[in-house]
Write a structure and sequence with these properties.
The chain is mainly alpha-helical and 409 residues long. Helix content is 58%, strand content 5%.
Length: 409
């Protein structure tokens, strides 16, 4: 049984008021209170940012807890006294200097209390019956005394994580819905309120959509994401209202339905009609047979392109599983970005059909970083004609940027 509880650290370590406060909390705990040590440890891991400890410090705490023989922490015998060598081995071979630093962090955070011996060594003395009557080392009593506090903090962190996850899911769903509804509006020639039915009107809506999306910060907190989610939900509701109104109008009568279908098929702004591979052949007067675009030998894999430019998938009607899906989606996105038919034809002639389509996907991914996608495309076309442009560096830069954002997140 401990006969005297030491309160001061050995050697040149100073005693702070925070250390005194931690010792007071540990001293005031009920001796009959018992907690599951690994449940407390999990709560501390969850609330580590609020407590102010790192993963490495938690690894040391994990090692300290492993030296306590019982699963339940209760009573007075809560001092563990491993040597630095033993503690280092259980902390996955942590260096001695690093170990000492993280032990100090645990003490300063009020998770453990130092009970130093007269010479600074950690050991225990046993009575004639083999029971420990005096021990010097690290006291785990604060974990018992503050268990409810740690659990409350952990629950707050879990609730915040759930709320953040929900708002992120909401933003993802709204982005997908808006992108696909805009693509449908352009492809079907749906008129916008008070405007015509060309893609230029939908481009304005698309520009508003991209402006909202660009407001999403890289390392976002829930408070920053909720207003963005509200704006996206409002925009999605307005676009859905446009599409629903168009559907109601088109089915009001058989004649109106026929007329509407005729307008859709003859829409001179249809992005599909603007694709060169669907135009009539000059020599024969017959339509070319539409075949799935084939990947050139020097082209990059489709999976790599989608990894670099994932936003293009949002505009695909049924996902992108092959090159034909990719090209059809680019046909919808290209007029949204303001790339004119002439600039598109020149890009295809200089780069090839597939590589030009990859450029469109890359420009979409870069968002508002590109002021004029049409002008940028013409500039890349000139470089391609001079042999000074390759799609590879552009893709690798986008992939590197996305990996960096994931690490920061």
């Amino acid at each position: 049984m401990q006969t005297h509880i030491t309160t001061t650290p050995f050697g040149r370590r100073s005693l702070s008021l925070a250390h005194v406060a931690s010792q007071a909390v540990a001293k005031a705990r009920p001796l009959d209170k018992a907690v599951h040590k690994w449940n407390v440890f999990r709560a501390i891991c969850t609330a580590k940012a609020r407590i102010g400890v790192s993963e490495r410090a938690l690894a040391v705490l994990d090692a300290l807890l492993s030296f306590h023989p019982e699963t339940a922490l209760t009573g007075q015998d809560l001092i563990v006294f491993p040597s630095n060598q033993q503690l280092s081995l259980r902390a996955h071979g942590m260096a001695p200097a690093t170990l000492r630093r993280h032990l100090a962090v645990l003490v300063d955070a009020g998770l453990i209390v130092r009970r130093d011996s007269p010479n600074g060594k950690r050991y225990a003395r046993k009575d004639r019956g083999g029971e420990i009557e005096l021990a010097f080392g690290f006291d785990l009593s604060p974990l018992v005394a503050r268990a409810d506090e740690f659990e409350a903090w952990a629950e707050e962190v879990r609730a915040e994580e759930r709320a953040l996850k929900l708002v992120r899911e909401r933003i993802t769903l709204c982005r997908r819905d808006i992108a696909k509804m805009i693509a449908t509006g352009i492809a079907e020639g749906v008129p916008t309120r008070g405007r015509g039915q060309g893609p230029a009107d939908w481009m304005e809506i698309h520009g508003l959509f991209r402006t909202i999306v660009e407001r999403i910060p890289r390392n976002a907190i829930r408070q920053a994401l909720e207003p963005i989610a509200d704006d996206l939900a409002l925009l999605a509701e307005e676009i859905l209202t446009l599409l629903e109104a168009h559907v109601k109008t088109s089915v009001s009568s058989a004649n109106e339905s026929q007329t509407e279908r005729h307008k859709q098929n003859s829409n001179p702004y249809s992005p599909i009609d603007l694709e060169p591979r669907f135009r009539e052949s000059r020599g024969a007067g017959t339509e070319r047979k539409t075949e799935p675009p084939r990947q050139p030998e020097a082209a990059y894999p489709l999976g790599m392109i989608l990894d670099a430019c994932p936003d293009i998938v949002d505009y695909a009607r049924g996902g992108i599983s092959n090159w034909r899906d990719f090209m059809a989606t680019v046909a919808i996105v290209r007029p949204m970005l303001g790339i004119s038919p002439s600039a598109w034809e020149e890009a295809q002639a200089a780069m090839g059909e597939v590589q030009a389509a990859v450029v469109v996907a890359a420009l979409l991914q870069r968002g508002t970083a590109i002021n004029s996608a049409g002008g940028y495309t013409r500039d890349l076309t000139r470089k391609a004609e001079a042999g000074a442009f390759s799609i590879g560096p552009m893709l690798m830069a986008l992939i590197g940027k996305r990996k960096g954002e994931k690490k920061r997140a």
